[in-house]
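Hi C.,

You asked whether I'd gotten around to modeling the 74-residue construct. I have! Everything is below, sequence then structure, no commentary in between.
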Amino acid sequence: HSATKVSIGSTVTVKCGESLCTYTIVGSEEADPLTFRISHESPLGKSFLEKQIGDSVVVKVPKGEFEYVIMEIK
């Protein structure tokens, strides 16, 4: 089952640079970045919310800006 927009509970596969990364968007209490469970309140989680497949997301981090492209939403 593929979702059309990212929401809390979504598992999102994104292209980050040359690789693919998969994150699950969770509530802040369940967040565990080491297992790629990111809070919907985190900069990355916030930027993914409501996005659709093919959308490009630019996230500002301490080292600069990273661009992610949404590839799959489950």
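If it helps when you're writing up: Strands lie at 11-16, 19-26, 37-39, 56-61, 64-73.

Thanks,
B.
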